Write the structure tokens for this entry.
Amino acid sequence: MANKWNGSTPWLTRLLCLFMATLTACGPMNSKYTWHDVSSGKPAQSTKSTQMLDSWGADAEEPTVSDPQIAPGFLITLHSLADSKLNGDYRVDFDGQLQVPYDKTIDAKEMTLSDLKQKLTEVYHPYFKTPSDIEVKVKERRYWIDVRGLVEKPGRYLAEQGASLDQLIGMAGGTSKETPPLYVRIQKGQKSFVFDLNHYYSQGDDKPKILGWYGGEIVFFQKEMGGLTGERTSSSPYRLPVYMLGEVRKPGEYTLNPGSDFLDSLVLAGGFTEKADLDNIEIVRRTAGRKRIYNFSWDELQHAPTPLQGDVIYVHADNITKVERHTSLAATVIAAMASVVTSVVLILAYNKGRI
């Protein structure tokens, strides 16, 4: 009995086998689970939001400094002999903007007092013959702080540069009694710092966590850490967060414990949304200045590498339309039916001695 194809093989058998092979070739193919370099060159610069910090703020400038840095909250005094309407006190707002007479706004961010005077001279040049006669002084050095989260009276408060966290809490009416906060997060632009309140109080003033306010900070009292830690001890080492983005229920940054895997990060992020494409999950990692991407599927989770500090895990959305989904399902059903029919035909042909 022949064990190979020959000329007597029925055309229907050949046709069905060819059809089955075609469907199999058209089906989805699993990609190789490897890292792909997408960029190279200069080492990547770490963002300010992931800097390692032991404390927040800066030492206060001495009152004798002749050209101080302007900060949100400073009270600026203007005096002009040419126009008395300019005379008065003006507060730099939370965003660093200074509203001055004649409906003028000056962006005072990162300006010194001399920079501010020069800018005022430029702004008022069309109005005065000698606008340089405007006298500019810092009357009061206090700093805007936006206090949010688990406090009784959230809001913006003016604080001294060396104000302690206790003083700030007092301004905000104390922390919430129903849900006491465990952590404090300080944010200014992309720079942030989080520390444990219990550890803060246990250290006292020997190791101050807040050296001095910059002005314009958001201070958020929260129940969970939810970000990078300001601690760097043997029992609680500093760790960059892992960023869970895309189609997860709680996108954000999470600090994983040593030995945690992808499932742990997914649990922290609340799991997938209904729109998640479970076949299109990627980990973005920067190593030695190179950006690398690793794609994997939920069905083959064993291929997923362990998330490292600073990784960005992105779950893509499923953009397949209903028509495409139904077409894919139909193709799968037809392939299964063709496999069954082909098997039956081959068995019948074998029994009749044709193969």
Notes: DSSP finds six helices and 18 strands in the chain. Residues 322-351 form the longest helix (30 residues). The two ends are 7 Å apart (CA to CA).
